[in-house]
Write a structure and sequence with these properties.
This protein is α/β, with parallel strands linked by helices. The protein has 3 domains: about 1-35; about 40-180 and about 250-345, Rossmann fold (3-Layer(aba) Sandwich); about 185-250, no CATH class. Helix content is about 45%, strand content about 20%. It has an 8-stranded mixed sheet, with helices on both faces. The N and C termini lie far apart (about 85 Å).
């Protein structure tokens, strides 16, 4: 019987070693994931009072740096976004920390258990919310009240200058900000149709539907009228979303941007932005903030609206694997470093000196 048992034992040893190898590789991959998703900063959950409301926030601070810190206050773009944007902000918070700045961000109302409903907000409501957060931060001994500024993306383009008009800020980082709500909507519609290779007939029909929506908004039509006018083809529009758009569709940052004159502004624009007309945004920022202002414009030709490398964003597999194994690499090359350098160059007094 010995000649028959030896091959079986060898097979068991091979299986055992194969299992060990798989387990070691799995442990190694888990270690890489944990390492790549660990950030050189400290986080604490904080609660901020805003009138009768509360903001559920996260304060991310540098490790082992002399206090008080400067502070970057985050203003979200559109959608139901939590404080860390699903951990997507953390590479930026780390870059801020390397420059000696803390980061403050909060769950939108109704998100992650926060009270309220973000779809009930106007852009002025959002600015009031951020001003309350800044007032809270100024009262903290670990925050340098002279070095508090704003970071905002996309829809935040309508909120950032409103905040600056309500309370002093030392700098602004504007990421893919829009200027005019209706112009942005039309730009986005046409860009998506081009990307889909839409026919002339489909494009004409989409524009006609968009024009109908605009007319309804202009006369403050109820959601039920919108449903009727579109014959039930609402593209996922809800009554709450219709109310949000009705409140905000006249938003235009052009005049509000005057509040940013003289303030260091970093404007970051992507080369593959189908949401925002970046040429229009840059033109208006340069015109309103005027030559010789403290405006710095950075272009990222390979970036998408979210400043993710477009080649990564186009692949579900690549974006998932990158988010898991190398989240800092999600952003287009130079994006994180440029923000870190911008903050570092502001100097201790926060105004570029």
């Amino acid at each position: 019987m010995r000649p028959k048992t030896q091959p079986r034992r060898r097979g068991l040893r091979i299986t055992a070693w194969s299992l060990v190898t798989v387990l070691v590789m799995a442990a190694g991959l888990a270690g890489v994931v944990l390492w790549q998703n660990s950030y050189d900063l400290d986080e604490q959950r904080v609660t901020i009072r805003h009138g009768s409301h509360t903001l559920n926030a996260v304060l991310a601070t540098p490790k082992d740096l002399r206090k008080p810190y400067g502070l970057v206050v985050y203003v979200h773009g559109d959608g139901p976004i939590d404080a860390s944007h699903g951990d997507g902000y953390k590479p930026m918070w780390e870059a801020n920390a390397k420059a000696g700045y803390a980061s403050l961000s909060w769950d939108k109302p109704g998100v992650a258990g926060a009270p309220g409903n973000w779809l009930d907000q106007s852009m002025d409501d959002r600015a009031d919310e951020a001003a309350a957060a800044i007032a809270w931060a100024r009262a903290r001994p670990d925050i340098d009240s002279d070095r508090i500024g704003l970071w905002g993306a996309s829809q935040a383009g309508w909120v950032l200058p409103k905040i600056a008009a309500k309370t002093p800020v030392s700098f602004v980082i504007a990421v893919s900000p829009a200027i005019n709500w209706l112009r942005q909507g039309r730009h986005h519609l046409l860009a998506e149709l081009r990307a889909d290779g839409a026919s002339a007939a489909r494009t004409k029909a989409a524009i006609a539907k968009s024009d109908t929506t605009r007319r309804l908004l202009a006369r403050h039509a109820a959601f039920e009228e919108y449903v009727k006018a579109t014959h039930g083809d609402t593209d996922g529009m809800t009554a709450d979303r219709w109310g949000f758009i009705s409140k905000n569709h006249t938003a235009d940052a052009t005049q509000d941007l005057r509040a940013l004159r003289g303030i260091p502004v970093l404007l970051t624009l992507a080369g593959h932005d189908i949401n925002v007309d970046t040429a229009d945004t840059e033109r208006v920022y340069r015109k309103v903030l005027a030559p010789g202002s403290a405006l710095t414009v950075k272009h990222y030709p390979d970036g998408s609206h979210s400043m993710v490398d477009q080649s990564v964003e186009q692949s579900d597999v690549r974006i998932t694997l990158t988010a898991i194994f190398s989240p800092r690499s999600l952003f287009v090359n130079g994006f994180l470093e440029d923000q870190r350098q911008f903050l570092k160059d502001l100097g201790r007094d926060g105004n570029g000196s």
